[in-house]
Design goal:
The protein is α+β, with helices and mostly antiparallel strands. The chain has one helix spanning 24-38; strands at 2-9, 16-21, 45-54, 71-77, 80-81.
Length: 85
């Protein structure tokens, strides 16, 4: 199953606001909204990532994951940076 993640950082490599969605339309709509709202600042980084989920073998648990997502493999990234004029 693929999950869709939108990531917003106000400075590169800084703390991030992150959301996960199973529906790509909802994730992409959030991404586009963040691009429109925040990318006027050249330091802002907004990304949309398709995350391919893998399942753990029976009997093992995903450490540190309250959502049951065990590991992720970023399949597609759409970074958006503000343009300097």
């Amino acid at each position: 199953m693929t999950a869709y993640r939108a990531i917003l950082q106000f400075v590169e490599d800084g703390p991030a606001v992150t959301g996960y969605w199973d529906n790509p339309v909802v994730g992409r709509t959030t991404y586009k909204g963040w691009v429109g709202l925040y990318t006027h600042d050249p330091a802002v980084v907004v990304q949309f990532v398709a995350v391919e989920e893998t399942t753990e073998p029976s009997g093992s648990s995903a450490s540190g994951s309250s959502t049951g997502r065990s590991s992720s493999n970023p399949a597609t990234r759409f970074p958006q940076r503000a343009r300097s004029e």
